Amino acid sequence: MKGDPRGHFVYNVLAWLFAMLPLTLIWIPTPPAGRMPVIDAQTRGARIAIARLTFGPAAAEAAETIDSATARQWIDEMKSRHRGPFLRLRWFCQDGAILPPDQGCSAHGGGIQHGQWSEKTRQLRKAGYFIANVVADIDPEAFLSQADARRRLTHLLLEKYLIRVDDGWIFRQSRYYRGSLQAEDEALGGRKLLLAMAGRPEWRTDLFPLFREAARLIPHGAETKPVTEMRQKSLELAEKDPAFEPIRIKIHVLPEPSDADAVRTHASRKGKPRLAGEYRALAEAIDAVFAVSDLGGAAKKTLSELSDREVAAALSSWVSRLDEASGAAARAGAACRLMSAIRVALAQARGPADALALMDLSLDLESGIFSQGGAWLADTRLMDRRRRLDAVADGIAGAHGMGFIGGRAMGALSESLRRLTADPAAVVYRREAEYLSRLSAWSQGGLDFYFSIPMRTLSVIAPEARNFIHDRLHGSPLLTTAEMIDALAADARRISGVESRLFGESAGGGMRALNPGLARGILRAPPEGTDLSSLRPDGIYLLPATTRDLPPVSGILTEGRGNALSHVQLLARNLGIPNVAVDRRLWPRLRERAGESVVLAVSPGGVARLMADSPEWDAVFSEGAGRPAEGDGEGLVRPDMDKLDLSRTEPIALSGLRARDSGVIAGPKAANLGELQHHFPEAVAPGIAIPFGVYRRMLDLPMDPGRPEGPSIWQWMSARYAEMAQGRSGDEAFIDGFLSLLRDRIAGLRLPPEYRGPLTAAMARAFGPDGSYGVFVRSDTNVEDLPGFTGAGLNLTVPHVV
Question: Band of the pLDDT at 509, cuts 50, 70, 90?
């Protein structure tokens, strides 16, 4: 949806921005029997604490705007400056004193020495780019207590990633600026921060995925295998040595221990002498990644050192299974199950040190599984279907243990496996194999939840940040599990007689559906080395499987077997572009038709068709049947603001709503539920809707809660929209900063007292005494009713139970 930056604030905010915000789970008692009441919260961002009816504190940091070109220039300068993001060295003392290097903090309660931020670094941080983090200087409790702690943490983690993949990033030269960062202090500070996180139950449960990524990326005395470094070194070599590209693709698509020998052979036969050290470093990194670890011994050692003997006992059977496993598949499966069990055990672990030790063990297990991925996959190819399904179940447990999916998703996938095992009919096999394929998309979505916005923000100044999720998934054991599921799906399609076709002829297994969709465009085969930013939106392109970036195009034909976790597939999924992996042997037939208008059809069931365009498709692609026609304002939506009623600020029982109230005082789900309850009172649970007027009144609160005399949220937003209308509508840094600050403010709002009392009373009238019922908070948005809307997943209903 594209909104008018000069107006329609209510719809822009209520129907779009709020929908992008995460729902906070608040648990209340479940009734022993009977219907479950419903509260229609209207907005995904509203944090409604049913028991206390309060909201968390808001972020108070003021925004500072820097245009993206200037920000990128400053970052490039930091990369080349001897002092990087720092101005000079200083001692930072416990009592707050900041002293020159020759004075020290002995008279000030102790302290640490490191670089002091330059003025440009400070300005970038004020603009929302939380860079140049000094972990040693973080006060863990104060840091975690900030309203925007999650945002700052994700920026810190992405910076650690950028340091790994971009040769030190802004610290590239300052690594040699002695004293700017002390490795020992950073590791000690990292451990303190992680222990503080481990000491808070929410980080070991609801925020487990983010806690695990923090333990993986923040130095704290535990070493991890250099998977990211291996992938990055191969990319850098391919850029310097084009003949190395096939090996790079192999390392990125399906890495194996033998890749180290391939690198050494290339270096000795075809390599460039000036790159000899880099070939050697990559080969050694591959050796380190695939070094076989004694996972069972490491696990037993960790359990023996836990102070919480109950947790140790709960995990002992899984550790024994791992210790006794023989064969790559058995070891990998046992390690996956142990990772999942560790995630469950963390919720019960009493001490922070135990929790961190278990997290480090989980990360060691992940590295060990990844190093055995090729052997694990080879073992499964020799198994019958039943045992392959067991291996997939292990991999799903591993994805849960790594934090990529939650318990509910793991349960749904496990149930799919049960159905497949119970009924081996071809139609069931194909249906459930395709359902299992959702694991990759769900895993990407799990990381998107935490990292998509900070990735987009930091990519303004560091484009490499956009690759974080792809590299994370592709450098994990999920790569092997996705391959196993892909093999099952291909087998199911073969048994079911599903056939993909290329210009009317059978593709003979040479086409593999990756992302569903329907597209019409010009078939294009750009030569190698083409700048992908020049790709046209009307093109259906033949592209390599490891494309690092992609503008919106009509369709994609990916070279090779393809993979559900390939970067081009993640991009295609994000952009809603149909994508088909095409075997290299079919490329000559495709190139012969380059320049022709074609239609690419990819079904969710895995059927792919590429055919010549014809007038018969005109009706399918006409206005109203898909994308908007030319000249309609690019899909600009102008809502009817006159019908909006913002005067209602009392909670409304469903019995007081009808369908005609949709888009007037409440959203369509609440209004239509009210209509249904009117006609079928016994079939619809009681519920309460929070009307639009409440949200509009909330926007009259001050943007900065520390400055009540300052501009309201509404006024602040109006000023930002005015700036966009005056020429900043294309400034990504400005827009991302605007959205981030607004998101943080909304997420931290406190429900004013004048709303708490009426809501409490309305709940008592509708549901009964407090503690006698359970509640679902239904978050919703109106945008799914707009023409051409494809943002499935903005709605969410979450059960709330104490």
Answer: low
Residue 602: phi and psi, rounded to 5, are: -130, 120
Q: Which residues pair with 336 in a beta bridge?
A: none
**Per-residue pLDDT tens for 665-708?**
988 888 888 888 888 888 888 888 889 888 888 889 898 887 88
Task: Please count the other Cβ atoms lying within 10 Å of the Cβ belonging to residue 380.
Answer: 26
Mean pLDDT of 523-541: 78
**pTM value > 0.70:** no
pLDDT at 458 over 80: yes
Q: What is the mean pLDDT of residues 185-204?
A: 94
Say how far apart CA 46 and CA 160 lie, in whole Å. 32
Distance CA 198, CA 352 (A): 5
The length of the chain is 802
pLDDT on residue 22: 31
Residues 236, 242, 246, 250: what is their CA dihedral angle, to the nearest 10 degrees? 0
Residues 6 or more apart in contact with residue 210 via CB below 8 angstroms: 150, 153, 154, 203, 403, 450
DSSP letter string, 342-380: HHHHHTT--SHHHHHHHHHHHHHHHHHHHHTHHHHHHHH
Average confidence (pLDDT) over 544-567: 69
In one-letter notation, the amino acid at residue 434 is: E
The DSSP H or E segment spanning 775 is strand 775-779
List, for residues 710-740, the tens digit of each pLDDT value.
Answer: 899 999 999 988 888 887 767 767 777 788 7
Apex 511 CA angle, 509 and 512, nearest 5:
100
**Cα–Cα distance between 444 and 442 in angstroms, integer?**
5
Q: Cα-atom radius of gyration of the chain, to the nearest Å?
A: 28
**For residues 552 and 566, is the Cβ–Cβ distance under 8 A?**
no
Place of tokens 């009734």: 31
Give the long-range contacts of residues 345-348, CB within 8 A, separation 24 or more: 345/311, 345/314, 345/315, 346/204, 346/205, 346/208, 347/201, 347/204, 347/205, 348/308, 348/310, 348/311, 348/314
| Mean of pLDDT values over 47-55 | 28
Q: Rounded to an integer, what is the distance from CA 74 to the centroid of its chain?
A: 28
Looking up tokens 């919720």, which residue turns up? Answer: 347
Quote the tokens at residue 737: 């900063």
Handedness of CA 94, 96, 97, 100 (dihedral sign): positive
CB 100 within 8 A of CB 91: yes
Name which of 62, 25, 10 is nearest 744 in CA terms.
62
Q: What is the dihedral of CA 501, 503, 505, 510, to 10 degrees?
A: -50
CB atoms within 10 A of CB 692: 26
